[in-house]
Structure formats: structure tokens, C-alpha cells
Amino acid sequence: MRELRRIGWWGTLLAALMAALSATPAAFANPYEKQLANGLRVIVKEDHRAPTAVHMVWYRAGSMDETNGTTGVAHLLEHMMFKGTPSIGAGEFSRLVAAAGGRDNAFTSKDFTAYFQQVPKQKLEQMIQLEADRMRHLNLDPKEFEQEIKVVMEERRLRTDDQPQARLFEQMGAVAFQAHPYRVPVIGWMNDLEAMTVQDARDWYERWYEPNNAFVVIVGDVDHDDVFRLAEKYYGPLAARPLPARKPQVEPTQTGTRRLTVKAPAELPVVVMAYKVPVVRDVEKDVDPYALEMLAAILDGHDAARFSRRLVREQRLAVSAGTGYDATSRGPGLFYLLGSPSEGKTPAELENGFRTEIARIVADGVSTEELARARAQLVANQTYKLDSMFAQAMEIGQLETSGVPYTANKRLIEKLQEVTAEQVQAAAKKYFVDDQLTVAELDPQPLPDTPRRRPAATRH
């Protein structure tokens, strides 16, 4: 009877969250979309709760589009995009955004590069004008490049070379993937940065920064027809140009466990187990990515999750234990199990603990209560996301760049709702096998006498 009451409580919460989701005015009644003659898509989501607007430009070009010898160029160009145009001086872009009462930033991933400003709605036209200007008229001054490449190399030293866990994940990616470009770090290999030239950046800009390789997302207190007129005015005159052909980049089938050890100054060991898994390719037909998302929520994410309850509190095997999985990406997926063993426990014991928990799910499945809790958690995350205009814009952009239509947002949640305990069990049995596993271990070395440098604030 106690279990039924708990299940009923989670069911009530889930129903409330779904009602809130469907009742939110900004949730799915829009967005509106228009494609300009040059191929640029403009997506507008009206949200009139506050007099602000988020303006984002997404380019379908990330580190996975780079070639050997120029790794890191996508991220480097992101930095150079703030170095001015014939009409805007170096550094003036961000100053103008700040003067308008807004904030701006940019970020590069394996799949995309994106730029955003969040401003009072009356300043939106100025932001569109500024972004359209640098989409086609960017200055790539050799002197500015020489300064900025040094900034990027220092960023790599501080954020990767000096950070043990970052080094661990970088090396693990290079081992888990042997052919697919996901094996390359977004920031690039240091040797490539040292050899990079301003012409490399110029070639990347001219190859990918085209209106027909980009889309604009605007969320806020705006009228979509007004936004479309502004987009036609500023982005419309930019001519489309042919894009390079993207050839298939398929990772060969893995046929056995891969292992690596990274030695670095650190306080604790870290164990990462990465299994190759699918991501969403067909929203309607796919089953396993949704089951894997549910599995991640069952293993991690709250105090009652299996890893927190069993590995951390009951067995005291780990000081931390969690999962990582993203069901939407242009490239192949990885499902991470990661943690640090408790004092007196070894990385091998923690790895065995992870394996034991997965084996229990393969053998015994998951409970109705666990599934209800995971559903409520995942739907809650989607519901809370609607409180932020920036998060709404991010969601649209990330879905689109991964190849999933943003209009499928609601259907993705419904598909999560349809996941059964049997599907979760079947996914664990199918994908959590040694032939698809890469194990990375951080072997902690003595800490230096001087404190490690903290990562500097950067544009990201």
C-alpha cells in the first residue's frame, strides 16, 4: 500500500507538470517561421511576459566540420567575429550591446557555432543589423589574429591542459572515436593552434558563414511580422553562396573494450565508462534514445536515484557517481557512467559497482515507481525551461542543428512518456556491452605546491 501511495504521488506530480506544460502560452502555440530568398530561416517565438528579446544566430558548422591540421579553427573564428567590420571597430560589437542595456556571448560546439544577444525589445533592430553586418563583412586583420590566437592557446592551457578531468575527457574522446571527427577537441590540438594562420580563419569564414548555412532564432516580447520585416531588411540582401559537400563520416564498429589512463595532478581518481549508443534520428520511429534518457534519469539526477542511493550512501563506494547522455546530436552518441571512488576504494571497485548496477537492470528491470519518478523529472525539466527566454531559444537552436525539427519538441516529450520498463531494460541489455565500451581512468598525481591556475573568464 505504501508503494501505491508513492506511485500515486509521482503520478499526480506528472499530471500537474503536463497540464502546466500544455497551458503555458509560450510553449507550443508558436513559433512562427519564414525562409528568406537567400536560404536563411528566421524562427520567431513570441513570449510577452517581459519587454526583452533574445536574438541568436546559429551556423551549422562546428569542430566536426574541421580537417586535420586546422582543428580549433571553428572556435578561433568565433573569437574573431568580435574583431569588427568596416563599419564597426574591433571590440565595438559587445560595447554597443552593453550600451543598449543587453548582454551578448557566443559558443562553439562539435555541431555548431552560435551567437546571441539579449536586449530590451526596442533594441532588437540594432542587434539584427549588427549580426547581419558581421555575417558577410567581417574584418580578419592579421594583427588582431595574432593577438587572438594567443588568447585561444592560453584558454586551452587553462581550461584543458591544467584541468585533469578536462584532459581525461579529451583523451577519452580521442580513443572512443577512431574515425569520426568527434574524436577532436572543440578547442583544437595545441600544435594546430600554433601553426594556424589568419588565412585558415578566412577560409573557414568564407566556407561556412553564409545565410544558407545559418538560421536565426528570436524569442521575446515581439511581433513575428515585425521581426520578419527586419530580417528581410538586414539579412535579406546577403546573397547565398554554394556550400561544401558534407560527406558521410561513419565511425567503424567497435569490437572490444578500449582503456586509457591519464596521469595528472589531482585530489581524487576519476572513472569514466563510455558506451556507444544511438541518438534521435527519426522522432517517430526511434525507441532506444528515449529509453536511454529514461535510464539516465533512473540512475542519476536525484537523491533516490540508483547511483546516489546505492553507490554513494549505502555501499559508500563512491563520493560521487552520475551519468551523462545527450539524445540529440549530429554525430554518434555516448552514454557516460562517471564518478570518483571513496577513500579506501579503488577505481576498479567503482567500475565493478557501475557494472553491477547495470547488470541488475538487465536482469531485473526497473520498478514502476522508478519509471514514474523519471518521467516526472524529465517533464519537469522541460516545463521549467519555459521560464527562460534564453533557454527557449537554445532549445530551438540545439534541436535544429542536430537534425531534429524544433516543431517536434512536444512530440519528444510524448515519446518519453511512452517509454516502458521493458524498453529501458532492453536498451540496457543491448548497449551496455563491452564491445561498445571505452573506460578512462584519471590516475591522480601529487598536487603542485603552487595552486593550479583558475580558468580565466572568456567569451564562452
UniProtKB/TrEMBL annotation:
<dbReference type="InterPro" id="IPR011765">
    <property type="entry name" value="Pept_M16_N"/>
</dbReference>
<feature type="domain" description="Peptidase M16 C-terminal">
    <location>
        <begin position="196"/>
        <end position="378"/>
    </location>
</feature>
<feature type="domain" description="Peptidase M16 N-terminal">
    <location>
        <begin position="41"/>
        <end position="186"/>
    </location>
</feature>
<dbReference type="GO" id="GO:0046872">
    <property type="term" value="F:metal ion binding"/>
</dbReference>
<dbReference type="InterPro" id="IPR011249">
    <property type="entry name" value="Metalloenz_LuxS/M16"/>
</dbReference>
<feature type="signal peptide">
    <location>
        <begin position="1"/>
        <end position="29"/>
    </location>
</feature>
<keyword id="KW-0378">Hydrolase</keyword>
<protein>
    <submittedName>
        <fullName>Zinc protease</fullName>
    </submittedName>
</protein>
<dbReference type="Pfam" id="PF00675">
    <property type="entry name" value="Peptidase_M16"/>
</dbReference>
<keyword id="KW-0645">Protease</keyword>
<comment type="similarity">
    <text>Belongs to the peptidase M16 family.</text>
</comment>
<dbReference type="InterPro" id="IPR007863">
    <property type="entry name" value="Peptidase_M16_C"/>
</dbReference>
<dbReference type="GO" id="GO:0006508">
    <property type="term" value="P:proteolysis"/>
</dbReference>
<dbReference type="InterPro" id="IPR050361">
    <property type="entry name" value="MPP/UQCRC_Complex"/>
</dbReference>
<keyword id="KW-0732">Signal</keyword>
<dbReference type="GO" id="GO:0004222">
    <property type="term" value="F:metalloendopeptidase activity"/>
</dbReference>
<dbReference type="Pfam" id="PF05193">
    <property type="entry name" value="Peptidase_M16_C"/>
</dbReference>
<dbReference type="InterPro" id="IPR001431">
    <property type="entry name" value="Pept_M16_Zn_BS"/>
</dbReference>
